[in-house]
Amino acid sequence: MQYRLKNNLLEATVQTKGAELKSLKYKNQELLLNDDAHWNYTSPFLFPIIGKLKNDYTFINNQEYKIPKHGLIRTADFVLEEQKNNLLRFSFTSPDEMLTLYPFKFKFTVTYFLDKRNLSTVLKVENLSADMMYFNLGLHPAFSTSAFNNKFQDYAVIFEKKETMKLPVIESNGTLNFAKVSKIVQNQDYLPLTYQDYENDALVYKNLKSRKVTLESKNYLIDFNFKNFSSLGIWTKVDAPFICLEPWIGHGDKTESDNQFMDKDDLVSLKPNKAKSFEFTFTIKKPEIEEK
After folding, report:
1. How many Cβ atoms are within 10 Å of 174's Cβ, its own excluded?
2. Is pLDDT of 292 > 70?
3. 34-74 per-position pLDDT tens digit
4. Is the separation of the CB atoms in 113 and 121 below 8 Å?
5. ω before 48 within 30° of 0 (cis)?
6. What's the CA dihedral at 124, 132, 99, 16 to 10 degrees?
7. How confident is the model at residue 5, as a pLDDT?
8. What is the pLDDT of residues 223-239, one digit of tens each?
């Protein structure tokens, strides 16, 4: 099922499958990818892993687990917990049979808030198991690059702060090879979009200074604030009309991974019966339309 939030500027549509934002319209102009011909998702959540496991398996407490690519949430059936004029809240509680894929029982809650030009989202992860729980967490929204009659090359990503780093190569098995360099970023806060950057998968910015990026064209500007997330993937398919801006806590397995889950970077730890929340916001800054 799908549910909507709407004011005089924005309209957001969320489906129960994955609690995924499927549409975000500004004055009836679609801002997200809404086309299964190019990608089967629009804005999925990545949990408890990001990307693929090396050789598709990992060990947790000496037990082998095969967690699917991007984890367990993006195809899960959420239930609607609360609906108000400016709020939608969905939740998913992992069933016992999911313990064969990931040995921690959890509840994952997604709350959307609509306020003028802002769509804010709060993700809450609760540990329902008796042991300390560990996970990575990622966002994966796909923004349309044909909004307001633009083309892909009309856009740029602007970082909140100047970044300097060497971006890793993504190998054919999906692992990140930090010993190889796909792109050198030197004191840069401006990234013009070019398909050439994505011929070998995503650009991966690890340990960002920025906690906000802006997707900009001449007649369109949207801020993406992600204060809890420390890394960023940027991805598209060559010649496709979208760009994914993907804040992460963690990333896919490294090429030298020993398949031990506890060796993954940036794991979040959560004590039994405790919860942590993570927030992000989309803010449409341009075009400027009078708010009545």
Report:
1. 17
2. no
3. 888 899 999 999 999 999 999 999 999 999 999 999 999 99
4. yes
5. yes
6. 0
7. 98
8. 999 999 999 999 999 99
How would DSSP label each residue in 188-252? Answer: EEEEE--GGGGTTS-EEE-S-S-SEEEEEETTEEEEEE-TT--EEEEE--TT-SEEEEEEEES-S
**What local confidence, expressed as pLDDT, does residue 34 receive?**
83
pTM score:
0.96
CA atoms within 13 A on the CB side of 114: 23
Name residues whose C-beta falls within 8 Å of residue 269's C-beta, 6 or more positions apart in sequence. 132, 133, 134
- Rg of the chain over Cα atoms, rounded to whole angstroms, equals 19
Neighbouring C-beta atoms of residue 216, cutoff 10 Å: 20
Query: Using an 8 Å Cβ cutoff, are 109 and 137 in contact?
Result: no
The secondary structure of residue 17, as a DSSP letter, is B
* Structure-token match 């930090």, residue found: 178
Average pLDDT of span 204-231: 96
Residue 238 token pair: 């060559």
The residue type of 159 is F
Sign, CA dihedral 37-38-43-47, equals: positive
Report the pLDDT averaged over residues 9-32: 97
d(CA 268, CA 233): 18
Strands in 29-30's sheet, in edge-to-edge order, are 2-6, 10-15, 21-26, 29-30
**Is it the case that residue 291 has pLDDT exceeding 80?**
no
What is the average pLDDT across 82-90?
A: 97
Helix (DSSP H) and strand (DSSP E) numbers for the chain: 0, 23
Contacts of 37 (CB under 8 A, 6+ apart): none
Give the CA dihedral 154, 230, 208, 213, nearest 10 degrees.
30
